[in-house]
Amino acid sequence: MIEKLSLVGFGAGGWGSLLLQAGLMTLAVSTVAFLVGLLVGTLVAWARVSGSGPVRALASAYVSVFRGVPDILVIYLFFFGGRQFLTAIGTAVGIPGPFEVSGFVAGALAVGLISSASQSEVLRGAYQAVPKGTIEAGSVVGMTRLTLFRRVIVPQALVTAIPGLGNQWQGVVKDSAVVSVTGLVEIMRQVAVASGSTREYLLFAGAGAALYLIITTLSEQITRAAERSVRHGEKGKAA
């Protein structure tokens, strides 16, 4: 038993350092994907709240598509489809291929765009939760749109948005597992390689699960701390 556990350790013959590196890669790709989702989701939420009829319809269609298509299919589209697209462009302009697509970039973009659809709903709901009277009062006292957004809408919307965005982050971390199909060595890929090499499938699956649980548990604590901070700030302003 001790000999088996040494396989996930940091000693000679242990996979501990490689698993740790894979955990850091999972964090990296998840962070980039979440930020991509937040940026695109903000634009989509703005389009659905403030855009014209056609813009709102386009934003709604975007949300429906990325919430309805399987994650792995989107990753295949970016990774394998991206190769074909770049090769076709290169051939058209006289640059010989084939061209490679980074697994990190393709995976982060794919997971980020998938997440952006759900994040846009969180942000839209948070904006709509801000009392209209508060916004009208800010306008009456002469606040510019930028000042109103920065000092009234954002602080109040964050109270509602942070728990939802925290859930979206947890989802991005779990969705990052499918990025392993691109060959990127994150947790799932390293678990598969280690399991195949040692035939200790249960041991390394448990180690992978432990890494995900560490990341998600720490993330939950950070989200709760951020939520308490925002709520405390709101109470301080009210006082």
**Structural classification:** mainly alpha
Number of strands: 0
Strand content: under 5%
Helical run tally: 9
Low-confidence stretches: none
**What would you call the shape?**
flat
User: How do the helices and strands follow one another from N- to C-terminus?
Assistant: HHHHHHHHH
Distance between the termini: 60 Å
Written account of the structure:
The protein has 239 residues and is an all-alpha fold. The protein has nine helices and no strands. The protein has helices at residues 2-5, 16-50, 53-68, 71-92, 103-129, 132-140, 145-175, 187-198, 201-238. It is flat. The model has no long low-confidence stretch (mean pLDDT 87).
Question: Can you give me a brief rundown of this structure?
Answer:
By secondary structure, the chain is mainly alpha-helical. It has helices spanning 2-5, 16-50, 53-68, 71-92, 103-129, 132-140, 145-175, 187-198, 201-238.
Write a concise keyword list for the protein shown above:
about 240 residues, mainly alpha, 9 helices, flat
Write the layout of secondary structure elements.
Layout: H1 2-5, H2 16-50, H3 53-68, H4 71-92, H5 103-129, H6 132-140, H7 145-175, H8 187-198, H9 201-238
Helix pairs in contact: 2-3, 2-5, 2-7, 2-8, 2-9, 3-5, 4-5, 5-7, 6-7, 7-9, 8-9
